[in-house]
From TrEMBL:
Pfam families: BPD_transp_1. SUPFAM superfamilies: MetI-like. CDD domains: TM_PBP2. InterPro entries: MetI-like, MetI-like_sf, Sugar_ABC_transporter. The chain crosses the membrane at residues 70-89, 96-116, 152-175, 261-280. This is Sugar ABC transporter permease. It is found in: Cell membrane. Its main location: membrane. PROSITE patterns: ABC_TM1 (PS50928). It is a multi-pass membrane protein.
Amino acid sequence: MEKTWNNKAWFLVLPVLLLVAFSAVIPLMTVVNYSVQDTFGNNEFFWAGTEWFRDVLASDRFWESMARNLLFSAIVLVVEIPLGILIALNMPKRGIGVPVCLVFMSLPLLIPWNVVGTIWQLFARTDVGLFGSVMTSLGFDYNYGRDTLDAWFTIVIMDVWHWTSLVVLLCYAGLMSIPDAYYQAAKIDGASRWSVFRFIQLPKLNRVLQIAILLRFMDSFMIYTEPFVVTGGGPGSVTTFLSIDLVKIAVGQFDLGPASAMSIIYFLIVLLVSWVFYTVTTQPDEDRT
């Protein structure tokens, strides 16, 4: 008997496909089109080939911005991952404290990025901001709009405040999924708290930490709104990341060709690094199986 296929289900998927095409594929193709062409106005375009890509890759400005991006991502990962694990380990496992802690941990994640930048722009000011006033009262000559280290310190602290909660929630969910039998066996063997963390909790958090690191890398490497609102890429260009530099080229200078080429290179870097990270971190598990 010949099997019949019901294709009516495709009508349910069609709206999603159209939405993805409208919001992702069509803009991406537009960027690709601009990256291989040049224009002198009047909506007239001329074939440029890979010229813009060569110019971007040969630009010191591009590599300096990328170096700042990589440094920022490395700093926030080194701070947020251990801090998130530490907070998750000390959160209550039962009782009324559980929902209270979860709500407080979720609050920073609910604040829009531009609002976070505005909050810290005011919060870090030395005249009206609490953070800036405290730094000044402690004897520091703090000014995030003038000093390079102060600008970086402010942006890092802002990102830690905003996104450590994501690591906490992921790690807490991983810890809660560990069966009590492991803890009971460790208690019988007289294992210390460090031993429990090293041989039980940390291995069980392996997959969760992979997700946390990957998400935080992608988000920190593509950060734009918060540092742009707080410092505008300054003082000078010390906090001008790739995303900020890209907007300056595309919107400020209206160089659509170089901006499109840079955005594609930017996208490929994030995709490549994420793929390499995923491949490297999952390879040991595949070898064991």
